Amino acid sequence: MSSRPRLAPVPSPVPETKAARLRALLDSPRLEFLMEAHDGISAKIVEQAGFEAIWASGLSISAALGVRDSNEASWTQVLEVLEFMADATTVPILVDGDTGWGNFNNVRRAVRKLCQRHIAGICIEDKLFPKTNSFIGELQPLADIDEFCGKIKAGKDSQTDADFQVVARIEALIAGRGLDEALRRAEAYHAAGADAILIHSKQRTADEVLAFKARWGDRCPVIIVPTKYYATPTRTFHRAGFAAAIWANHMLRAAITAMQETCRQIQCDQSLVNVEGSIVSVQEVFRLAGNDELADAENRYLPSTGREARAILLAASRGAKLGELTTKRPKCMIDIRGQPLLRRLVSTFHEGGVRDITVVRGYRKAMINLPSVATVDNDLYATTGEAASLACAIGRLAGECLIAYGDTLFRHYILDRLRETPSDIVLAVDALWREREAASNYSVRDFVACARGFSVDYLDDDPVDVRAVGPGLDAETIDGEWIGLAKLSPRGSEVVRAILEAMRADGTLQKATMADLFTRLLGDGERLSVVYVTGHWLDVDDAADLDKAREFP
Ligand code: SPV
Ligand code: MG
Question: CA geometry: angle at 33 spanning 31 and 35, to 5°?
Answer without folding.
Answer: 170
